[in-house]
Amino acid sequence: MSELTDYDKLTPEERTAFDAAAKEREAVEQAALPYTWTQELGDVDIIVPVPQGTRGRDLVVTIAKKKLSVGLKGAEPILSGELCKEIKVEDSTWTVQDSNAIHIHLEKINDQTWWENVLTHHPKIDTKKIEPTNSKLSDLDNETRGMVEKMMFDNAQKQMGKPTSDELKKMEALKKFQAAHPELDFSNAKIS
């Protein structure tokens, strides 16, 4: 069922079952990887388990714009391949955590896309199902915050059957015009 039209033909119950099966398959595929990973729009964090007592000098880690390789010296890499998307090498880092894991932090070049996988040859996740963490209004710049607050106000007004901010502005302008021109009769006017 690769066609979107096939999915559209499913009943709500069938869609729920299909989504649950896809999520379960995805979870099994991701659990089989030699690492775990999480992402935000701007970065990817990878945790690679290594033998207890591992130190930085025991590792060979290569982070390039489109390539990642991690392994113990003298052994096959634990993971190696082409990255899903390009990264900012100078802002990406790795550290050893608790002597038993490597934490790799990759900064995305395009910080407005979700990655389907870390390495191109690994199983993909469905990026349409990603639910981003909630951000706070205080995290936004003033212009964006104003737009979001206006959208939230307008949405709340619509749900209550009240006029939106734009409609309120039009009504206020009409009132001012009527007050300035009492000689005009607006009783039969249709305002759109």
Automatic annotation (TrEMBL):
It is found in: Cytoplasm. Keywords: Cytoplasm. GO terms for molecular function: unfolded protein binding. InterPro entries: CS_dom, HSP20-like_chaperone, NudC_fam. The keyword Phosphoprotein does not apply. Residues 30-119 form the CS domain. It holds the Pfam family CS. One of its GO terms (biological process) is protein folding. GO terms for cellular component: cytoplasm. It comes from the Eukaryota. Required for nuclear movement. May interact between microtubules and nuclei and/or may be involved in the generation of force used to move nuclei during interphase. This is Nuclear movement protein nudC. It comes from Pholiota conissans.
